[in-house]
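Supplementary Methods. Inverse-folding protocol.

Structures were first reduced to a C-alpha cell string of length 103. This string, shown here, constituted the complete conditioning input.
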C-alpha cells in the first residue's frame, strides 16, 4: 500500500479518541501502516528505577496511530486535503488536491 504521509508532515486526526488533534509526524512504520504523531495518542507508562532513570515513576510517550485515521494538512490553507502525485519538470512530486500546491 502506498503511504501518502511522510515524516515531518503536519496531520490532523480524523477518527478515533483523538479526533480533531493536530501534530507533526515523528515516525512512520510502513509494515504496520502506523505513524507516531507529536502530542497525539499519549500513553502513561510505569517505569522501574534504573541506571538511566534513577527516579522511576510514570512517564508519558506517544503511541502509534493508524494511517487511515490521519489526514494531511494543506500547507497553504491549513485545511485537510488529499494527496496526489504527478511529474513536474521531470520530477515526481506530491501535491495538495485542494490548492494544487507542491508539498
Amino acid at each position: 500500500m502506498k503511504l501518502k504521509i511522510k515524516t515531518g508532515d503536519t496531520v490532523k486526526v480524523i477518527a478515533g479518541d483523538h479526533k480533531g488533534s493536530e501534530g507533526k509526524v515523528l515516525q512512520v512504520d510502513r509494515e504496520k501502516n502506523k505513524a507516531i504523531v507529536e502530542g497525539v495518542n499519549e500513553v502513561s507508562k510505569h517505569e522501574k528505577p534504573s541506571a538511566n532513570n534513577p527516579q522511576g515513576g510514570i512517564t508519558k510517550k506517544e503511541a502509534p496511530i493508524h494511517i487511515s485515521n490521519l489526514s494531511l494538512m494543506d500547507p497553504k490553507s491549513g485545511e485537510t486535503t488529499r494527496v496526489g502525485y504527478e511529474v513536474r519538470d521531470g520530477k515526481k512530486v506530491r501535491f495538495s488536491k485542494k490548492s494544487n500546491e507542491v508539498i
